[in-house]
């Protein structure tokens, strides 16, 4: 098992999430959900840009249009132009008070999948009312997994036949047979509270699963067949949230983090809480898929 040096990028995100690599723009892009901010880190000069958002953004998908994303905003899926701020709603499931969209990623067929989480159980009327939704090309919505408290760790095997997903509150990373529907297949790994809670995840070119452990100060690499930990990236932040491979050679692991739940402000939290981290773990990722809409 190995550990790796990490480079912090000082952003002090309240709840950094959803990082992806845009290979055409050569930049990492991610969201600070609670601050309603979108971040872009240009690779060549490490120039950092931030953009105010009209709503909280849980996760995002790249599109074929430069400067345009599809976002899983609190209320639903929308096409969003970063420079102008123009927003077009694409699909919105029935609104439930206290429930918002969280983690999401584009599957190997170019369909954006994102799930909701229960933020306020009292307002929602229950703690497991979240659903994993797939935005189809005709802009309809297909429910894939239901009765979720907090959707996370969404990613796919390189061939797209297996979907990985967790309800963070269970501490269980699950594998699903994936096609027109998602069929539960097996438990990949059951995490202990001492290890941390599974948050965001991504898959490398070899099919290994990289999982951020909220409360665990690290991202770990799992063998997809056995769930065994083969590598870890230790971080100077307690709450890593989401990893993604990027860089010109797809060999850089970017990791978002959060200071929320630790303090009332970033100044009261640990020095690197909420920062973005860059590591070189000796693995290569896969190009991020772009959403395809009819």
From TrEMBL:
The cofactors named for this UniProt entry are:
Zn(2+)
Q: Which Pfam families match?
A: SGL (PF08450)
Q: Which family is this protein grouped under?
A: Belongs to the SMP-30/CGR1 family.
**Protein name in the entry:** L-arabinolactonase
The organism of origin for this protein: Tsuneonella dongtanensis
Query: Entry cofactor note text?
Result: Binds 1 divalent metal cation per subunit.
Gene symbol here is araB_2
Q: What is the lineage of its organism?
A: Bacteria, Pseudomonadati, Pseudomonadota, Alphaproteobacteria, Sphingomonadales
Residues the record lists as binding substrate:
100, 102, 120
The UniProt entry, under PANTHER family, shows: REGUCALCIN
Record domain SMP-30/Gluconolactonase/LRE-like region: where: 15-258
Keyword Hydrolase on entry: yes
